[in-house]
What we know:
- The structure holds three protein chains of three kinds.
- Chain A has helices spanning 4-9, 13-33, 37-62, 66-96.
- In chain A, helix 2 (13-33) packs antiparallel against helix 3 (37-62) and helix 3 (37-62) packs antiparallel against helix 4.
- Chain A has a single domain (4-98), classed as Helix Hairpins, CATH 1.10.287.
- Chain A is built from four helices and no strands.
- Chain A is mainly alpha-helical.
- Chain A starts with a helix and ends in a 13-residue tail after the last helix.
- The termini of chain B are far apart.
- Chain B has a single domain (8-37, 61-118), classed as Up-down Bundle (Methane Monooxygenase Hydroxylase, Chain G, domain 1).
- By secondary structure, chain B is mainly α.
- Chain B is 64% helix and 0% strand.
- Chain C has one domain.
- In chain C, 75% of the residues lie in helices and 1% in strands.
- Chain C has helices at residues 2-17, 26-41, 60-76, 81-85, 91-109, 114-132, 139-170, 175-183, 191-209, 217-224, 227-252, 257-280, 285-305, 311-340, 351-354, 356-369, 376-390, 394-420, 432-450, 453-456; strands spanning 49-51, 56-58.
- The longest helix of chain C has 32 residues, at 139-170.
- Chain C is globular, with a radius of gyration of 21 Å.
- Chains in contact: A-B, A-C, B-C.
Amino acid sequence: MNEIPEVIRTIPLNYYLFLSTALFVIGVTGVLLRRNAIIIFMCIELMLNAVNLLLVSFSAYRSDPNGQVFVFFIMAVAAAEVCVGLAIIVMIYRNLQSTDVHLLNKLKW
Amino acid sequence: MEQAIYTPYDYLPIIVQFLAAAGFVAFAMGVTHLIGPKRHSKVKDEAWECGIPTVGNARTPISYKYFMTAILFVIFDIEIIFMYPWAVNFKVLGTEGFLQMITFMGLLMAGFVYVIKKGILKWE
Amino acid sequence: MTSIILLSVFGIINLFLGFLKSNKILLPAVIIFLAIVFGVNFLDWNNPQSHFNNMLTIDNFAVAFSAVMVLSLALILPFSRSYINSGNPHLAEFYSILMFSLVGAIMMVSYENIIMLFLGIEILSIAMYVMAGSHKKELRSNEAALKYLLMGSFATGILLFGFALIYGASGSFNIAEIASFSSNTTATDLLPMMEIGVLLVLVGICFKIGAAPFHFWTPDVYEGTPTLFTTYMSTVVKTAGIAAFYKLVWAVFPGLNEFWYPTLVAITVLTLVIGNIGAAIQTSFKRMMAYSSIAHAGYLLIALTSFNDYSENAVLFYALSYTVATVAAFGVLKLVSDQREGETYEMFNGLGRTNPLLAFAMTVAMCSLASIPLTGGFFAKFFIFGSAIEAGAVWLVVVAILMSAVSIYYYFRVVMAMYMKEPVGEKVAVDGFAAFMLIFLSIFTFIMGIFPGWFNNWL
């Protein structure tokens, strides 16, 4: 039986790079184009997960566990961010009855 | 390491699979529409709710308490991922690793005690 | 190191102190905790050591910046009297979150591994998202929290992608190993990946410290956030961000110098111009202070571009003097706006007649921010410009001095309003602790301006 890194390495590293860059760009596009706060938030999570994929594939190609450790930390931090973020979005929904970011325009010069 | 060479031809099975899946869905939906009997009435078109009449709108606000519980679950759930690497390397890390994990769990427990004392998990 | 552990433990203790009946004990307790941390922090002075398998290194750089940040939190807290008097039920949480975020800030200045830098930034940022939205019923606070959250986590994503590419190129998160990789990149074909990674990291960090052209969230967030926490954002968060940035560009990417240097210089000039011009056209004092914090990030970035023997000390001195002046300015704003409802310049009209102390403290702070001689701000800019001239960037200094001239206009608008206009309201009530703090801050500013040598040769 092959080792897991070897199985991963049967696909060239470039493909992982392209896939995670594509995911990342989809996330960025979503953040820039969508208006619903929750969907923007999902796009940010997509960006973070693209990074996770990239880190794991680099880690497997270099046989270096550091990248996977970083992924653990990113997941934990992303969970904390989601909790705070959803709490903030719920707070706004209670005040505005909507999560459309364009309704938030109290702050302007 | 020798890199495998891939050609577009290698992806043919995946495309066939996609086509087969999409084709089956289209086929099944089309056939049921064509040959299934259709009877419209007030009772038939209503949403089915265990035989009793439907009550209210499905999009009612859900109690805030579910939200708090769910969020707390996400936090405590994710913190567990730090235990997997520790569990795998339990013997190598030895006493020091054990003490560090005790500290980590102690901090988590402090948060848990705080949440309980704050009354977040009280249902009523 | 001890300071990180102590701050975490004290933060937890403080959370549980919040269950007591009276919230009178919280403020003294937090001040005592911070005093202990401030003292313990100096145990590591001249005793550099690394902890947790080279994850953190506590050297003099880390100790000095930690001291500045702990001090600024201790200076900010006395202005939280209105929260105590109104019996805010979340007071203990506010204090605890600020202390936890300080842990993140200290990690940002003492990291040895990119993982720790990321964790520090996130601990600090997530705490700040919460604080930005701490006035739950107020729409402006909600909006600030959401904007900060979305922009901040977007920046985190970009920063992380940069880190991932750097890891892919260099194969390590340790900053010494990345530095050794980036200093001999002549033969590797991984250089483009490294360069894209460095660029993305620059963008992400500039987002976090609010440098133009990634500054657009700053005015909105600073204006909507409750004033007490705006003070914290524009002092501690900025200091930590700049110190981390300093360490990053000069400890991690020195080999790629000619690649990122032009980018950083362009960002610096843009930040200076946009910050100062933007501040000049504001009608709200708080929004002006937000743009002013962008401008000061620009001055700090000048020190980053000119790396030599003076720049470390210059950044430290600048951070200290900027912190002292900003805390005083926001402190007066908090006291006045609690009573007079509003944050415009007109609100300060005639303050020199009704509250001479507040007006005096505000004037000293504005002089320091506008870098008038005899105040700390003058020597702060003097040292920064000195290090830039030493590095040969004279034209950058010329731009910066022109922009400082612009800054005098908007800083003195509020001084004019206080002394030249008729009073608009009653005398503003000031409690003893806050008054003492304002006097202390003014004296501190003068000491920094008259004996700058005391603070300048630490590192």
